[in-house]
Design goal:
Blueprint: E1 4-7, E2 13-17, H1 19-28, E3 36-39, E4 44-46, E5 74-76, E6 83-85, E7 124-126, E8 132-134, H2 152-162, H3 167-171, H4 175-205, H5 208-241, H6 244-251
Antiparallel strand pairs: 1-2, 1-3, 3-4, 5-6, 7-8
Helix pairs in contact: 2-5, 4-5
C-alpha cells in the first residue's frame, strides 16, 4: 500500500498517511487539488493527480439569452397623447380607442383644436375622424408616393392627366383596375401608326375598299379614345366629390387600426 506525504502552506512535510486518511483530509478541506504531494517511493505531484481523490463537479449549463421580442410600431393616442401600440384595441393610459379623436395628432402627439385640419408639428392633414394623413399622400414613414397613406387629391390629379394609363389606380394599389386601362392605351398607341400608314397607302393607290375599312378602324380608334377619356374623367370627379372618411375607408384600409 502506498503511503503519502503532503506539504502545508508553510512547506512543512506531513505524513506518512494512508489512502483512507488522505481522502478524509481531502473531505475536510485540509488538502486541495493543488496541494503538493509525495509518495514513499519518491514520486512528487499534486493531490489533484491522485485518481478518485476529488470528485469533479459538473459546471452548470450556460444561461441561454432571453428571446428578443420585437416591438410593435407605436402611435400617439388621439385622446390622451400618450404612446400606444399601433395594434392596440384601447389605450393603457386613458382606456379609450387610440384613434378616432381630435385631441392629439397620432403621428407626432401634438395637441389639436376642434377646427384644426393640419397638424403644425408634422404637417399631416387631420380628417374628420381624427386620423392624420399626409397632405401629399405620403406618410412620415413611407418610402415613396406609392406607399403609405393615399390622398384623394393626388388620385384625382392622376386620373385627370394620366387616367387613360390607369395611373390613379396604380397609385391606390388597385392593379386589377389599372391593367385594363393600360392595355387599352397600348392598343390605341399601336393602332395609330397602322391606321395612318394604311390611309396614306389607300389614298395614293385609290383603293376605295381599303379606305372604307380603314375608315371603320379610325372610327373605332376614336370611340376607344373617347371611352378611355370619359372613364378617366368620371374617376376624377368621383375622387373630388368623395368625402375624406369614405376615401380613407376604401383606400387607406391598412392604416385604420384600433
Amino acid at each position: 500500500m502506498t503511503n503519502y506525504f503532503y506539504f502545508d502552506k508553510n512547506n512543512q512535510k506531513h505524513g506518512p498517511i494512508s489512502e483512507q486518511q488522505l481522502k478524509a483530509l481531502a473531505t475536510q478541506g485540509t488538502i486541495g487539488p493543488h496541494t503538493p504531494m509525495e509518495t514513499d517511493t519518491g514520486h512528487k505531484g499534486t493531490a489533484g493527480q491522485i485518481p478518485g481523490l476529488f470528485v469533479a463537479v459538473p459546471l452548470p449549463p450556460p444561461r441561454q439569452p432571453a428571446p428578443v421580442v420585437p416591438l410593435s410600431a407605436e402611435i400617439f393616442c388621439t385622446n390622451c397623447g400618450n404612446t400606444v401600440s399601433e395594434q392596440a384595441v384601447a389605450c393603457r393610459s386613458c382606456g379609450a380607442k387610440p384613434v378616432g379623436h381630435r385631441k392629439f395628432c397620432r403621428r407626432c402627439g401634438d395637441g389639436l383644436n376642434p377646427e384644426q385640419v393640419i397638424c403644425i408639428g408634422c404637417g399631416s392633414a387631420i380628417s374628420a375622424t381624427g386620423k392624420s394623413r399626409s397632405i401629399a399622400g405620403i406618410s412620415s414613414t413611407s418610402d415613396g408616393i406609392f406607399s403609405g397613406q393615399k390622398n384623394q387629391w393626388v388620385a384625382a390629379l392622376f386620373a385627370l392627366f394620366l387616367g387613360g394609363f390607369g395611373a390613379h389606380w396604380l397609385y391606390l394599389g388597385e392593379k386589377r383596375r389599372a391593367f385594363p386601362r393600360l392595355i387599352m392605351c397600348l392598343i390605341l398607341i399601336v393602332m395609330y401608326p397602322i391606321v395612318y400608314f394604311v390611309t396614306l397607302v389607300a389614298a395614293s393607290a385609290e383603293l376605295d375598299m381599303l379606305l372604307l375599312i380603314n375608315g371603320f378602324a379610325s372610327l373605332a380608334w376614336f370611340i376607344l379614345l373617347a371611352i378611355i377619356s370619359i372613364w378617366a374623367l368620371v374617376d376624377c370627379i368621383m375622387f373630388l366629390v368623395m368625402s375624406n372618411d369614405d376615401f380613407d375607408k376604401k383606400y387607406n384600409r391598412e392604416d385604420i387600426r384600433l
